């Protein structure tokens, strides 16, 4: 643990705020690595969650009308490509474990948990297929969950894992994670926007996500096309698609959205 957490947290918030809007991956890697260093986590990931059904239609839904739409991992491996992540999220939606069910059931408020703090029956969880598939095979010995609502239909979920360790996260570790993440609602908002959520319930395609950060820079469409190896016509089509997805008509409108405007 760090000796003066408030000072370090404020420094981290300033670093995140100073990064260009286009540097989404750099921003989330900074957040992953700094928090992981402070709490002794070996891996981390983020999931963007969107509400697709409201009451009464969500009453009998396995995830109460919510869906796990997109994800980012800290430690990237070749097998953790976009298709792999999509399949994992789809499987978790069809057959969510006890932890996922509990986290989603309490949507609408900022919340944090430790996997072994009693928020689920961990002994019962160890008998489930989800424990075998995701925890035992992956060597996960403990997890901190932290979820920040951004609006009534979108939430930002962070998880920090210990891998093959005897020691578990403490209450102080959980509180530190919560303190960091609760103070940057603007960051959760931009993270969801960068994945095509918040204003819509369907995430952007990988191609559109590659182009989106370029639109938040000062590059012209020609420069963006050259940077991505696309024709100008194809680039313009993708730009138009992105504007339509975010219900804006220009890059100025897109920038306003990112800066918290309407």
Automatic annotation (TrEMBL):
A biological process from GO: regulation of DNA-templated transcription
GO MF term set: DNA binding
InterPro entries, alphabetized: Sig_transdc_resp-reg_C-effctor, Tscrpt_reg_LuxR_C, WH-like_DNA-bd_sf
HTH luxR-type domain boundaries: 201-258
Tree of life domain: Bacteria
Coiled coil (residue ranges): none
Protein name: LuxR C-terminal-related transcriptional regulator
Organism: Synoicihabitans lomoniglobus
Classification lineage: Bacteria, Pseudomonadati, Verrucomicrobiota, Opitutia, Opitutales
């Amino acid at each position: 643990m760090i000796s003066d957490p408030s000072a370090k947290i404020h420094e981290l918030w300033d670093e995140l705020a100073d990064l260009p809007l286009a540097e989404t991956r750099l921003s989330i890697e900074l957040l992953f690595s700094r928090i992981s260093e402070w709490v002794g986590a070996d891996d981390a990931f983020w999931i963007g969650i969107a509400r697709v059904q409201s009451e009464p239609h969500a009453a009998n839904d396995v995830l109460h009308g919510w869906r796990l739409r997109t994800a980012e991992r800290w430690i990237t491996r070749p097998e953790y490509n976009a298709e792999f992540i999509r399949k994992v999220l789809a499987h978790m939606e069809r057959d969510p474990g006890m932890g996922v069910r509990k986290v989603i059931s309490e949507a609408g408020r900022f919340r944090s948990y430790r996997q072994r703090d009693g928020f689920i029956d961990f002994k019962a969880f160890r008998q489930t297929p989800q424990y075998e598939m995701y925890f035992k095979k992956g060597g996960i010995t403990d997890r901190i969950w932290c979820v920040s609502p951004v609006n009534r239909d979108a939430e930002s979920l962070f998880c920090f894992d210990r891998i093959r360790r005897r020691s578990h996260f403490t209450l102080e570790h959980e509180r530190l994670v919560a303190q960091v993440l609760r103070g940057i609602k603007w960051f959760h908002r931009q993270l969801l926007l960068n994945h095509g959520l918040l204003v819509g319930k369907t995430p952007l395609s990988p191609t559109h996500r590659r182009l989106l950060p370029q639109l938040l820079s000062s590059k012209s469409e020609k420069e963006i096309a050259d940077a991505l190896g696309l024709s100008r016509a194809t680039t313009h089509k993708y730009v138009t698609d992105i504007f339509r997805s975010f219900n804006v008509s220009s890059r100025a409108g897109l920038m306003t959205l990112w800066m918290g405007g309407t």
